[in-house]
Structures are given as structure tokens and as C-alpha cells.
Amino acid sequence: NSGSQREAAQGGGSTSRTLGGQRREERLRRFRELHMKRYEACKLNSQEVVEEDKRLKLPPNWEAKKARLEWELQVQEKKKECAARGEDYERVKLLEISAEDAERWERKKKRKNPDLGFSDYAAAQLRQYQRLTRQIKPDLEQYEKLKEQYGEALYPTSDSLLHGTHVPSKEGVDRMVADLEKQIEKREKYSRRRPYNDDADIDYINERNAKFNQKAERFYGKYTAEIKQNLERGTAV
Question: 89-96 vs 62-85: helix axis angle to the nearest 10?
Fold first, then answer.
């Protein structure tokens, strides 16, 4: 009996040691998993800090510039593909634009440069000036040559003598002449709206009466046309 009790006690002890070892291995495994998760979190956090620091050092409009450059690259690729197929890129581009996109771009263009009509000559002159300056494309190559040639003298101060020192290039003169001819051609096509028709019948005694007659004609003209013709011919009953 005592031997069997010792064997049972030994068996129970070995079983408890086995369970203790398993629990210890489980705790170590969970500890290693937590340690690896902590390491991965620290690594990802460091990467995010580095990326955020890079983004903060970039210009504020970097995302817009990047999107613009990517769009320009796509346009260049499409132009090459169209040239290889012998197609007109502008025609292909218009075929790919949906009606919704065209309306949205038109609304955006109107918001960007709305035509408010004529208010005064100063506002009209400012609008003309802004339109002309937007068309100017600076020649950076010529600018670099002038900067090498004149140095600091290229940037005038209050003591600089400017009259008669600048000689425009032939290309610049031709560009100015072409622009002026384009403005003259556009101005000739413009026709000022007349406040009244010189050939129309005068059936009013003052400006207020003329406005009233116009409103009456607009609303009742189609009903009274025959009566008016009979009165003019003298055949009215």
C-alpha cells in the first residue's frame, strides 16, 4: 500500500510539473508575441514620423504640383500614342470628355474669370491688362543671358538711368506687332449695342412712355397686330 501511494504521489508530481512547464511555455510564447507586436508598432511609428517630417518640409502646394506633373506626363503619353496611330489628339480628347465634365469645367472657368459686364473704364482697362499679362510667356533663356551680361545692373534702382538703354529684340517686336494686330482684328468684330433702333417707328412721347409701349408690345403685340395694321391702313371698323 505504501509503495502504491509513493508511485501515485510521484505520478501526481510529474503531472503538476508538466502542467507548470506548459503554462510557462505558453506565457513565454505570449510574451514573445507581445514583444514582436511592440517592435512592429515602434517601427511603424518611426516610419510615420519620418514621412510626416518629409511632408512638413515640402512646399504647401506640393500635392497639387505633383498631381499636375502626373497629369502632364499622362497627356504626353497620350499625345505620343495618338501620333503613332496617326490621330488628332485634340479630337480624341474631346471624344473622351463627358457632358458632365464639360459643364463642370465651364462653370469653374466662369467662377475663375467672371464677366461682370461694363462698370467703368478703369475696370475694363484692368480686365484687359490682366488678360494680356496672362498670355505673356517669359523667355527664361534670354533672361539668363541678360543677367550674365549686365549683372546687378539688370535690376534698376532709383539712381538707374533707364531711358534709351533698352533695345528690344526683333522677335519681341514681331510678337508685339502680332498681338496688336490680333487686338485690332478683335475690336473690329465688336459692335456696340444700340439703345434703340433708328428705323423703328416713333410711337412714344418720352422715355417712360417708350418703356411702357415696349412692355405692352411684348405681352399683347401678337393679339393686337391685326388691329394696329387696320388702324394704319384706315380700314378699322
Answer: 120
Q: What are phi and psi of 206, to 5 degrees?
A: -155, 180
Cα 219 to Cα 163, 225, 230: the distances in Å are: 65, 12, 20
Q: pLDDT tens digits, residue range 123-151?
A: 888 888 888 888 888 788 888 888 888 77
The answer, as to whether pTM is greater than 0.70, is: no
Count of other CB atoms within 10 angstroms of residue 51: 10
CA distance 182 to 105: 26
Buried residues in 146-164 as b, exposed as e (16+ CB within 10 A): eeeeeeeeeeeeeeeeeee
Confidence of residue 177 (pLDDT cuts 50, 70, 90): very high
Domain residue ranges of the chain, discontinuous segments joined by +: 61-98
DSSP for the chain, written as a single string: -HHHHHHHHHHHHHHHHHHHHHHHHHHHHHHHHHHHHHHHHHHHHHHHHHHHHHHHHS-TTHHHHHHHHHHHHHHHHHHHHHHHHT--HHHHHHHH--HHHHHHHHHHHHHHS-------HHHHHHHHHHHHHHT----HHHHHHHHHHHGGGGS--TT---TTT----HHHHHHHHHHHHHHHHHHHH--PPPSS-TTS----SSHHHHHHHHHHHHHHHHHHHHHHHHHHHT---
Q: Sorting pLDDT into bands at 50, 70 and 90, what band is 13?
A: low
